Automatic annotation (TrEMBL):
GO terms for molecular function: electron transfer activity; heme binding; metal ion binding. It comes from Luteolibacter yonseiensis. The keyword Heme applies. SUPFAM superfamilies: Cytochrome c. The chain crosses the membrane at residues 6-27. Keywords: Heme, Iron, Membrane, Metal-binding, Transmembrane, Transmembrane helix. This is Cbb3-type cytochrome c oxidase subunit II. InterPro entries: Cyt_c-like_dom (IPR009056), Cyt_c-like_dom_sf (IPR036909), Cyt_c_oxidase_monohaem-su/FixO (IPR003468).
Length: 236
């Protein structure tokens, strides 16, 4: 084998893989075509629009800067590849009070508004695809979801039954300040002294707004829905 063939062979082996795994998906995902709803299968007409509210773009940046993606994924895998849909409330809620079973798999439209899809590197902690929904409907059912997340991020171990949590504390995104008159509405319910309170900084405010936008259980057109109970999920 000549040196030239060797180099050509080497470039082809890596080049084809790079094209198929990086370039082609990037071009396809970068410019997602709008999906037209189908009256017969989706029960509606018009264009499907992925809904998200909150500080998605800047919150995603704080998420990335602090390495949340190293331990948390945001992918609800299709059932042939894993049991994510059957893990407690990862894929949506099994019994949402208004919408019933809202579980479904992740699709490319779920990352609408984010520069990168933070699918994650490892699953040291739970999947966060539907964290917003989980916090609002389960963890902070009778309180403020925003406040629950501030308290959690300041110290995940402040909840007695979570004392062994290995989620890092992001207390450096908060600061302590003297109480002047009324306590700050965002101040943590714990920490601080009689005269001081702990309040979230601007970055953690963006991060929490982003975390609450993580509700990847919106009904999607049937063509995007690979959940076992296809028709039902699409019509909700
Ligand atoms: C070193 C790995 C690691 C990193 C980095 C990490 N986490 Fe965690 N996280 C965990 C583990 C493990 C758990 C599960 C234990 C627990 O509930 O505290 C968890 C749990 C959580 C939960 C509770 C989820 C639930 O449904 O119970 C939230 C919210 C969370 N992490 C947010 C974050 C955010 C936001 C960041 C980035 C600012 C982050 N984590 C970074 C490991 C990590």
């Amino acid at each position: 084998m000549s040196f030239r063939t060797f180099i050509l062979g080497l470039s082809a082996s890596f080049g084809v893989a790079w094209l198929a795994i990086v370039v082609v998906p990037f071009i396809k995902m970068r410019n997602l075509a709008p999906i037209e709803l189908n009256e017969a299968t989706d029960g509606a007409t018009g264009i499907f629009f992925p809904k998200r509210t909150g500080r998605v773009a800047d919150g995603a940046q704080v998420y990335a800067e602090n390495g949340c993606y190293l331990c948390h994924t945001q992918v609800v895998r299709p059932t042939y590849a894993g049991n994510d849909l059957y893990r407690p409330d990862w894929g949506g809620l099994k019994a949402d009070p208004d919408r019933g079973d809202t579980r479904r798999e992740t699709n490319a439209y779920d990352f609408f508004g984010e520069k990168f899809a933070q699918i994650g590197v490892s699953r040291m902690g739970p999947d966060l695809s539907n964290l917003g929904r989980r916090v609002e409907s389960i963890y902070a059912k009778d309180g403020s979801a925003t406040q629950w997340l501030y308290s959690y991020l300041y110290n995940p171990r402040h909840i007695p039954e979570n004392y062994q949590s290995t989620c890092p504390s992001f207390s450096f995104l908060f600061h302590e300040q003297p109480v002047k008159g009324e306590r700050n509405a965002d101040a943590l319910p714990y920490g601080g002294t009689d005269d001081t309170e702990i309040v979230p900084g601007p970055e953690v405010k963006a991060l929490v707004s982003y975390l609450l936008s993580l509700k990847k259980d919106q009904a999607v057109p049937t063509v995007l829905n690979f959940a076992p109970d296809k028709g039902k999920a699409a019509k909700k």
